[in-house]
């Protein structure tokens, strides 16, 4: 018997396979820490539910007498596995009331199963013995989301879901948020259909502009699905005959009409960073080159939304951390990488 079992997942949605893993964790430990991944992210077809909603689904799927033994723990995506693993470890230690690694008398195990290569994160915690269980049936959260967003009645998914999850999906399908998710889901489906005849999965190359002036940054609200209404950096796909910088300046001009000539922006270019995490975009493998333009103490130039942008605006850097759940894909984490919006996990595993 362990003191603590740790179960890590996104649980989008929480299904019978997840419940079987949770029951195993409850059977071998006095308490179970359920790490809820992708916390604080905007709703999307891949992450339709908030961490609070998923926490309620998990607790509602077990007997009331067991709920006090389950401790939900939200952890954001960092698009950097070592940093993410440190964050999980640090938060688990904090939850268990320890400022350092738990004492030798504290016994901890990790519960999970290797579904596919995406489950490799389970190897990021060598300090915790792993109970690697076989797959619990053929239930897959991605297929469940696709069926639900494609219009399947939740009751037809009852074999794969706890009863409380069925009721939750039925209620959620009557909300405005569901309609927006369906629009995004259809847009992504159409994008993938357009590339279905390619001989191999395509890799997309994009550019984004991070324009900083004084203590503000230039952002847009996306005008189309996927991510309609979400905050994002101005940017888009490169054209065949453009350099990366030319593409970035073109996209910036098209989406914001930023009132600075290309020569002034080029003079303000400080750095270009590549962001290439495999899961950073729901459209498929997308590698972006973020150009950081720092106008320093210059007055923020006038902007006007156009093209793919519904709104272009300068926002104070100090306000961005509170807007994390309003950002498209990994754009909040791109800003964090340049501007240090979040405290970074520091404790080694």
UniProtKB/TrEMBL annotation:
Family annotation (Gene3D superfamilies): HUPs, Nucleoside Triphosphate Pyrophosphohydrolase
Keyword rRNA-binding on entry: no
InterPro entries (UniProt xref): Cyt_trans-like, NUDIX_hydrolase-like_dom_sf, NUDIX_hydrolase_dom, Rossmann-like_a/b/a_fold
A GO term for molecular function: nucleotidyltransferase activity
Protein keywords: Nucleotidyltransferase, Transferase
SUPFAM superfamilies registered for this protein in UniProt: Nucleotidylyl transferase, Nudix
Keyword Transferase part of the UniProt annotation: yes
Domain Nudix hydrolase: 202-338
One matching Pfam family: CTP_transf_like
NCBIfam families documented for this protein: cyt_tran_rel (TIGR00125)
Name of the protein in question: Cytidyltransferase
Species name: Simplicispira suum
């Amino acid at each position: 018997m362990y003191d603590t079992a740790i179960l890590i997942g996104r649980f989008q949605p929480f299904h019978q396979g997840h419940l079987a893993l949770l029951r195993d964790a409850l059977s071998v430990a006095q308490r179970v820490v359920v790490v809820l991944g992708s916390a604080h992210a905007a709703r999307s077809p891949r992450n339709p539910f908030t961490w609070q909603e998923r926490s309620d689904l998990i607790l509602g799927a077990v007997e009331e007498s067991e709920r006090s033994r389950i401790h939900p723990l939200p952890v954001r995506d960092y698009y950097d596995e070592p940093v993410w693993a440190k964050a999980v470890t640090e938060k688990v230690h904090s939850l268990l009331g320890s400022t350092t690694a738990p004492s030798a008398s504290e016994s901890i195990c990790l519960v999970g199963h290797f579904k596919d290569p995406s489950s490799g994160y389970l190897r990021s915690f060598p300090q915790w013995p792993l109970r690697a269980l076989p797959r619990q049936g053929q239930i897959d959260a991605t297929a469940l989301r696709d069926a639900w967003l494609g219009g399947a009645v939740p009751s037809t998914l009852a074999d794969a879901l706890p009863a409380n999850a069925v009721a939750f999906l039925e209620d959620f399908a009557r909300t405005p948020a569901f309609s927006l998710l369906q629009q995004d889901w259809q847009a992504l489906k159409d994008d993938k259909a357009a590339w279905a005849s390619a001989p191999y999965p395509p890799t997309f190359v994009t550019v984004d502009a991070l324009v900083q002036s004084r203590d503000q940054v230039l952002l847009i609200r996306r005008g189309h699905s996927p991510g309609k209404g979400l905050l994002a950096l101005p940017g888009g796909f490169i054209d065949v005959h453009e350099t990366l910088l030319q593409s970035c300046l073109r996209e910036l001009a098209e989406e914001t009409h930023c009132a600075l000539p290309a020569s002034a922006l080029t003079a303000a270019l400080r750095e270009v960073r590549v962001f290439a995490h495999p899961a950073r975009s729901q459209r498929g493998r997308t590698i972006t080159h973020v150009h950081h333009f720092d106008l320093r103490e210059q007055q923020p130039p006038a902007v006007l939304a156009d093209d793919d942008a519904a709104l272009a605006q300068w926002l104070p850097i100090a306000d961005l951390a509170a807007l994390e759940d309003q950002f498209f894909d990994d754009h909040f984490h791109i800003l964090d990488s340049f501007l240090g919006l979040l405290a970074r996990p520091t404790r080694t595993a």
